[in-house]
Structure formats: C-alpha cells, structure tokens
Amino acid sequence: MDLHDRSAETDPMTHTGSSAPPFGRALCAMITPFTEAGALDLDGAGRLAALLVAEGCDGLVLSGTTGESPTTTDAEKSALIRAVRAAVGDRVPLLAGVGTSDTRHTVELARSAERAGADAVLVVTPYYSRPPQDAVEEHFREVADASGLPVVLYDIPGRTGTRIEPDTMVRLAEHPRIVAVKDCSYDFLGTQKVLSRTDLAYYAGCDEHNLALYAVGAAGYVSTVANVVPRHLRSVLDAFDAGDTEGAARLQRRAVPLIESMMASGLPGAVTAKALLGALGLPAGPVRAPLRPAGREAVDGLLAEYGRLVAD
C-alpha cells in the first residue's frame, strides 16, 4: 500500500530545471474530509495531512478543485488551514485556494488565508464571466497586492472558460509576489514559452503531465492522485533527478492506468480520490452536492488499478 510504503527516499533532491521550487516539488491537492453528516472533518483533515507529509509530500494545497472549494464556506476554508497547520507544523508549505469569480471576494479570502497561517494562495482565473485578458491581469494584480503572501496562478481553462494567455503570464511574472503557476492549460508549447521568458515556477496540475513538464524545467506537480499514491508519484521525480530518465519514464507509465481511472473516467477527481481513500479506511467522507459519490462498480475499478500499481 503506497501510503504506508516507507521504502522510497524522502529527502528533497535538487532539480536542475529553470524554475526554482518555491514550495517543493511534490505537492498534493488534498481532498477536504467531511463527516458522514456532511460537516467539515477537521480531525480527519489533520490526520490525512500528517500522513501525506510523512509519505513524501513537500507541500499541501487546500481548498482547491479537489478540495471542493466551491462548496465550502469562507469560515470552513480558514478553519481547514488552521487545523492542517496544527497537524503538520512548519514542515511543509500550505497553499490555500482563494480564487472565485469575484475579485473583491477573492481579495477577502486571500487576506483570511494569510491570517489563518497559509504560506501562499492559489488563485484561479475568474470563471463564468469570462473576462478579457486585461481584466484577468488586473484581477491577479489586485489579489497579489492585497496580502503579503506569494501567489500561484491557476490556469485551468477547461473549468473556468478563460485562459491566462502566455503573454499575460509574462507580464504578471513582473509582480514580485506572483511566483508560480499551477498548469492545467494543456498547452505544452505555451508553457515552454513562459518558462523560457520568466522565472515563474511551473507545477503540473494534470498528473499525466508530471514528468513531461518536469523534464522541460517545471518545478514539480500539484497532484490529485497524490492523495492515494504520494510515494509513487514522488519516485518519478526522484528517479529523474538521479539521472535515471528511463526509470522515471517507466514509473510514470506505470501510474497511467490509475491516473486515467481517477482523472478521465467521467468522475471528478474529488469523487474518485474520496472513494479510494474511504475504501482504504483513510479520512475522506462524502462529497458535497452537486457532486455525487462514486458507484460500487467505479469504486471496484479504482481499487483494482490502485492494487495493480502498489503491488508492482
């Protein structure tokens, strides 16, 4: 079982890519545990966070997509940061998702995250209203100016409907607190253009791209699949940094069936990650509506792919 396999190396290694890893290399987009009644499970969140850190995660992203941020309240977001901080101390950075479709609300959440003890904020492109690029740029600048925390831009047009275009990224990189990008753009050329023109630290936000982006200079990944196999995903980067590129590629390919079953099966990653964690007896709980839990057949399929990966 990957979450309890202590055989992998846990000391950080130096990546020679163009982006410095300001938050480490191997970050988990952590689920938000709920009780069976649907309330925030702060004890479970602390236990899961401590386990993920013990199993090799360099940092944790709270209240992101996988953390079901659209369905948690502002007060719950702050409470989650405090609970996880109490569980892991200062061992790893905590990044708090604060992005909304409303600039004013996002600014408020960024300030609340800072007060709660976050080390950085993850800010998604404003969604639904589909602002033009000059408005997108101004949104991020206002949020970056609102607190003393570093900002990670979250580029995920498949969910927001709006890209952060490469030229916009380049301009935003001039802001002293905008330091990194979680990249779910599926624009490999555009990512390399920004890497070549800025010092922004790129983190792969889609698990199938973890190694590919790392190989061209990204800092690491922010992974949903790391909720259940943190050591295996970290081992891919460890192998690459050790010069074993063939081994890194082999390890990445071995993870593909689980990545596909969790991220490309028609179910959101929050649903599949919680289904697997729950089946493994780890803190998770239900998802909040409008999400629905995975059915029995889906859970069996997820467990089968998980078992094949950790058994190898």
Automatic annotation (TrEMBL):
<dbReference type="GO" id="GO:0009089">
    <property type="term" value="P:lysine biosynthetic process via diaminopimelate"/>
</dbReference>
<dbReference type="InterPro" id="IPR005263">
    <property type="entry name" value="DapA"/>
</dbReference>
<feature type="site" description="Part of a proton relay during catalysis">
    <location>
        <position position="65"/>
    </location>
</feature>
<dbReference type="GO" id="GO:0019877">
    <property type="term" value="P:diaminopimelate biosynthetic process"/>
</dbReference>
<feature type="binding site">
    <location>
        <position position="222"/>
    </location>
    <ligand>
        <name>pyruvate</name>
    </ligand>
</feature>
<comment type="pathway">
    <text>Amino-acid biosynthesis; L-lysine biosynthesis via DAP pathway; (S)-tetrahydrodipicolinate from L-aspartate: step 3/4.</text>
</comment>
<feature type="binding site">
    <location>
        <position position="66"/>
    </location>
    <ligand>
        <name>pyruvate</name>
    </ligand>
</feature>
<keyword id="KW-0704">Schiff base</keyword>
<keyword id="KW-0220">Diaminopimelate biosynthesis</keyword>
<comment type="function">
    <text>Catalyzes the condensation of (S)-aspartate-beta-semialdehyde [(S)-ASA] and pyruvate to 4-hydroxy-tetrahydrodipicolinate (HTPA).</text>
</comment>
<feature type="active site" description="Proton donor/acceptor">
    <location>
        <position position="154"/>
    </location>
</feature>
<feature type="site" description="Part of a proton relay during catalysis">
    <location>
        <position position="128"/>
    </location>
</feature>
<dbReference type="GO" id="GO:0008840">
    <property type="term" value="F:4-hydroxy-tetrahydrodipicolinate synthase activity"/>
</dbReference>
<keyword id="KW-0457">Lysine biosynthesis</keyword>
<dbReference type="InterPro" id="IPR002220">
    <property type="entry name" value="DapA-like"/>
</dbReference>
<dbReference type="InterPro" id="IPR020624">
    <property type="entry name" value="Schiff_base-form_aldolases_CS"/>
</dbReference>
<protein>
    <recommendedName>
        <fullName>4-hydroxy-tetrahydrodipicolinate synthase</fullName>
        <ecNumber>4.3.3.7</ecNumber>
    </recommendedName>
</protein>
<dbReference type="GO" id="GO:0005829">
    <property type="term" value="C:cytosol"/>
</dbReference>
<feature type="active site" description="Schiff-base intermediate with substrate">
    <location>
        <position position="182"/>
    </location>
</feature>
<dbReference type="InterPro" id="IPR013785">
    <property type="entry name" value="Aldolase_TIM"/>
</dbReference>
<comment type="similarity">
    <text>Belongs to the DapA family.</text>
</comment>
<comment type="subunit">
    <text>Homotetramer; dimer of dimers.</text>
</comment>
<keyword id="KW-0963">Cytoplasm</keyword>
<keyword id="KW-0028">Amino-acid biosynthesis</keyword>
<dbReference type="InterPro" id="IPR020625">
    <property type="entry name" value="Schiff_base-form_aldolases_AS"/>
</dbReference>
<dbReference type="Pfam" id="PF00701">
    <property type="entry name" value="DHDPS"/>
</dbReference>
<keyword id="KW-0456">Lyase</keyword>
